[in-house]
Amino acid sequence: MSTVTFDLTNVLVVSSVKLGTTNLTFLQNTNDELVITLPSTQLAGTSQTIEINYSGAPATGEQAFTASTHSGTPVIYTLSEPFGARDWWPCKQDLNDKINSIDVYITAPSQYVSVSNGLEISQVITGSNKITHFQHNYPIPAYLVAIAVTNYSIFNQTAGTAPNDFPIVNYIYPETLTPAVQTQLAQTPLIMNLFETLFEVYPFHNEKYGHAQFGWGGGMEHTTVSFMQNFSRGLIAHELAHQWFGDKITCGTWKDIWLNEGFATYLSSLVIENFDGNTAFIANKNSLINNITSQTNGSVYLTDTEAQNVGRIFSSRLSYNKGAMVLNMLRLKMGDTMFFQALRNYLADTNLAFKYAVTSDLKYHLEAVYGSSLTEFFNDWVFNQGYPTYNITAQNWGAGQAKITVSQTQSHSSVSFFEMPIPVRLTGAGGQTFDTILENTTNNQEFIISVPFAITGANFDPEKDIISKNNTVTLGNENFDLEKAIALYPNPVSNELHIQIPSNISIEKVIIFNSLGQKTIESNELDFSVNQLSSGVHFVQIQTSEGTFHKKIIKN
């Protein structure tokens, strides 16, 4: 290449660009770019070092670089996500090539404490100033590079397990570092232990973790040092979770921001589950669902246009809360063992670790462990919009059985039907409960299940595991009909036919006839192959201990 381009706001003025002692020609254009002309063509596979000298007061539009005060003391801090890094330093502000490593030198009046990513290497006093050197030796995207300076008090902790133990360095405003805040910060090693147990060792354990207080209303997961407005357990958990999901593996486009924010939100919920118990976890999920369903539209995955809109990128309803509940539904669908193993595999993937991932990368790892396609799930819940409303009818259906009918409507036309395993809790007169999960794949689907008591009530999704709203559950009073209780599925059928009968009767023989009345299959099993049948309508004769019944199937 003969030129190299950096992102840099034209509010900041570049005075010189040098390669060694050679001054290079450069241009700052109206696209907030610094275009540098190289003295000769740079060949692929070779490297050079250039020095850019620039100055000025960063623009405040993106709020990427803030100069303010706390209790009358000056403070500066940065927050560059998503598009603000260029507001204060010349960078490659993209999501496809991380910076291999950084050295950061901050010169400030010597009474102040400077903060940046990685390990503090040195402090050098020069007159009334102090130069603090930080070094971060992991790949990092431009938006996670950060600095802060003020009269911080430092509160140290330790986390991890030897030989992978590491310091937690907390930079706190002196007026804030109270015993109560120290008690809040004591949650950090506990949350770290949980995440390391569920997933893997803290990705940056060779350096540090920590917090730096700042004035923005929330938190920001700068690698190895999260900037924090407060130290609530939920915020500590959210920003710490990003060190795995967002910092180690970073979303490959802003359309995939849920891979950062959905995970961090769900991991914060896992802290509630593990520290406070299931009742609190249910309440937390219910709160997320209520927010998600407060509007009828919206997808987890962004469009190209939405990915230019900072407010949409960081939609708490969609990127954070819906992303989190999608993960919860994947956990329900896959089961804990497979779900968490898939996430550990995702984090360990050398093509993704300390690099970037898009939604299809996560889907690949989930499917590899699950053993089945999740395309339908992702289409419904990630790429398209809205949520289902379920109508459940439950009724007693012969001795020791119940029939449950599931129907749904959709809040948005982009999804014709939400496929999802749905939990239902049946109750009896004596306080009995029976939990079942129904694989709901079609509308108005009927399930006949064995229940050890006569049901008197039903509760849909008692643990609040599914995004849905305005669901209804009714107890049916239809009389039991053995003819209806015998069901064949799937119908239409392609490969294997399943016959469902009440548990108090036994099968004797199943005979299938074609449309000419010719016998084509005979079996005494409830499950058998129909591959040999021709396409079209066939008639099934089911001989049982309670009589003979006739059904019709369609062979695909």
From TrEMBL:
Q: Where is the Aminopeptidase N-like N-terminal domain?
A: 14-144
Q: Where is the Peptidase M1 membrane alanine aminopeptidase domain?
A: 234-381
Q: List keywords of the entry alphabetically.
A: Aminopeptidase, Hydrolase, Metal-binding, Metalloprotease, Protease, Signal, Zinc
**Record EC number:** 3.4.11.2
Which reaction is catalysed here? Release of an N-terminal amino acid, Xaa-|-Yaa- from a peptide, amide or arylamide. Xaa is preferably Ala, but may be most amino acids including Pro (slow action). When a terminal hydrophobic residue is followed by a prolyl residue, the two may be released as an intact Xaa-Pro dipeptide
What's this protein's family per the entry? Belongs to the peptidase M1 family.
Q: What is the recorded name of this protein?
A: Aminopeptidase N
Q: Which organism is it from?
A: Flavobacterium cheonanense
Upper classification of the organism: Bacteria, Pseudomonadati, Bacteroidota, Flavobacteriia, Flavobacteriales
